Amino acid sequence: MKSADYSFPRSFDGFGIALSGLCLIHCLLLPITLVLLPALSLSPALGWLHDNEWLHVALLFPIFLVSGTTLLRGARLDRRIGYIGGAGIAALCIALFAPNEWAEQIITTFGTVMLIVAHILNIRRRAA
């Protein structure tokens, strides 16, 4: 493959994996922290970060920007990357409308894992 075929550096995939991982950590650890450390649940800052859905939308923006652009280019050469990455991004959008916290966590976990897998496939495709 020629370098002109792919203008994004490999580090964008690593950055996408890192952003998805941070999203996963936020999703899984913040509720656990609130349960295990009741003193922190009284903190207005922690409650504000957890309860405001607009914050989740704002956190999705860099994920869409990095993952969307990088994975769309990779999907032109390997459709699996597009399907898996698209499923991940769709799941993150659906999670915003989940009826409860557990559903949101399950859907978000699925979405972030799908994005991480898509980025790994993209890295492997580039190395081949």
Describe this structure in words.
By secondary structure, the chain is an all-alpha fold. The protein has 6 helices and no strands. It has helices at about 10-35, 40, 45-50, 55-75, 80-95, 100-125. Helix 1 packs antiparallel against helix 4 (about 55-75), helix 1 (about 10-35) runs antiparallel to helix 6 and helix 4 packs antiparallel against helix 5 (about 80-95). The longest helix has 27 residues, at about 100-125. The radius of gyration is 16 Å and the shape is elongated. The termini are close together. The model is unreliable at about 1-5 (pLDDT under 50).
Quick overview:
Helices cover 82% and strands 0% of the residues. It is mostly helical.
For the structure shown, list the relevant keywords:
disordered N terminus, mainly alpha, 128 residues
List the helices and strands and how they pair.
Blueprint lengths: L10 H26 L1 H4 L2 H8 L1 H23 L3 H17 L5 H27 L1
Helix pairs in contact: 1-4, 1-6, 4-5, 4-6, 5-6
